[in-house]
DNA sequence: TTTCGTTCTTGTCATTTGGAAAGAATAATA
DNA sequence: TATTATTCTTTCCAAATGACAAGAACGAAA
């Protein structure tokens, strides 16, 4: 394990002892995901999750009309997980697809459980991560209700520029809950 | 502690030993909240949460135009908590108000921590609760994007009839992300 | 019961957004 | 370079929803 191992940024010495850090990291397996391949597919029970070292991943659900709705974008340092599937043992309802070749670190559920129940800092950390994801989801909700299409786009542009750079117009549009036509109009309007 | 203590429904013998159950329950304090009073207010740091035995609570945020946006409704057996505030130590951005006299059970953060780190089942349970809330939020998100106003209302009517019965039209409207005018029209249309 | 305040309904009109389809631009491949 | 596929833009029109304001219904309190 090199001294600048990627996961040391995630499980940092600020929050973990050296011994804890090493134990935690030892359970992760480095994986490379080819462009366009899936990390998880709808119907699958997740028994592992990933942390992204480098790459870009999009998750999407299929609505009742068969249309893809982007549910999230994941970039460097993100945890790519379906919490409901991982913890509640439900099949995921989404597809998680790498848009580019993606380097990530994989941890399976049994190892996660060992760490969770034996290392206090690990469970504090996990709780923080899930809570952070919850807060993010809640904010997205509020934005959907209080802001119009243009404002939502501008907000995304400001807070997550890497999404605008990496994702296609169509994918961004469904993420924002608008059509590609509208988003195209909005972009034009902004550029004037 | 009576044998049919309310909290035994929450921390049930299915998931906890008798001893665990008793210890957990011993930390909770029964509280009655008067109609129209606040459980938490914007700006406050939560260091406790409530479980609702009986009553009805609404949480709302104030948007940039000073308008109240209902963020959640809580009824019997719900946990009333701002996860972000409780775990991440941020001030809450919402108001939590009892619509009727409400009987609930209060647990403070320090006691929560003791239980969380000492009782494996308690942390599994807490993780499930937070995850459940996350999944719920995620579903609400998807509904906001994929369904129109009428469909969202019908969905709420079907899945949470107690909300329709207890909350005012205006409060339900902002929860669904529509105006009270629209909701009134939708109700008329449905009744025809 | 009368008054007052709140909530809900209704009407009119404006605005936002969507749907469908065609064309332009861009990227991918032979 | 020519060809094809994909993504993005644009146009026209329709549908959904919002804003505002007036009035009706309802409930609380004097």
Summarize the structure.
Chain A is of the alpha+beta class and 192 residues long. The first copy, chain A, has helices spanning 7-10, 18-27, 83-88, 109-118, 120-146, 149-159, 161-166, 169-176, 180-191, and strands at 29-33, 38-40, 48-54, 57-62, 68-74, 79-80, 94-98, 102-108. In chain A, the strands form two sheets. The first copy, chain A, has a four-stranded antiparallel β-sheet with strand order 1-8-3-6.
Explain this structure to me?
Two copies of one chain form a homodimer. The first copy, chain A, is of the alpha+beta class. Chain A folds into two domains: 7-146, Jelly Rolls (Sandwich); 147-192. Helix content of chain A is 49%, strand content 22%. Chain A contains nine helices and eight strands. The first copy, chain A, has helices spanning 7-10, 18-27, 83-88, 109-118, 120-146, 149-159, 161-166, 169-176, 180-191, and strands at 29-33, 38-40, 48-54, 57-62, 68-74, 79-80, 94-98, 102-108. In chain A, the strands form two sheets. A four-stranded antiparallel sheet of chain A has the order 1-8-3-6. In chain A, strands 2-7-4-5 form a four-stranded antiparallel sheet. In chain A, a hairpin with a 5-residue loop joins strand 4 (57-62) and strand 5 (68-74). In chain A, helix 8 packs across helix 9 (180-191). The longest helix of chain A has 27 residues, at 120-146. Chain A is globular and about 55 Å long. Chain A starts with 6 loop residues before the first helix and ends with a helix. The mean pLDDT of chain A is 95. At the A-B interface, helix 3 and helix 5 of A face helix 3 and helix 5 of B. Chain B binds a DNA duplex (30 and 30 nucleotides) through residues 148-150, 168-170, 178-185, 187-188.
């Amino acid at each position: 394990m090199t001294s600048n191992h990627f996961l040391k940024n995630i499980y940092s010495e600020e929050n973990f002892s050296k011994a804890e850090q090493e134990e935690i990291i030892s359970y992760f397996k480095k994986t490379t995901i080819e462009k366009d391949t899936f990390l998880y597919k709808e119907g699958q029970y997740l028994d592992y999750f990933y942390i992204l070292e480098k790459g870009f991943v999009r998750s999407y659900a299929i609505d009742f009309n068969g249309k893809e709705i982007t549910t999230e974008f994941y970039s460097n340092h993100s945890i790519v997980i379906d919490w409901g599937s991982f913890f509640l043992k439900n099949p995921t309802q989404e597809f998680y697809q790498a848009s580019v070749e993606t380097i990530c670190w994989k941890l399976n559920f049994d190892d996660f459980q060992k760490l969770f129940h034996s290392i206090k800092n690990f469970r504090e950390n996990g709780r923080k991560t899930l809570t952070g994801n919850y807060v993010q989801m809640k904010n997205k909700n509020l934005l959907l209700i209080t802001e119009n299409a243009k404002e939502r786009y501008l907000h995304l542009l400001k807070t997550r520029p890497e999404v605008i750079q990496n994702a296609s117009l169509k994918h961004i549009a469904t993420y924002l809950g608008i059509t590609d036509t509208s988003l195209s109009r909005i972009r034009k309007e902004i550029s004037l």
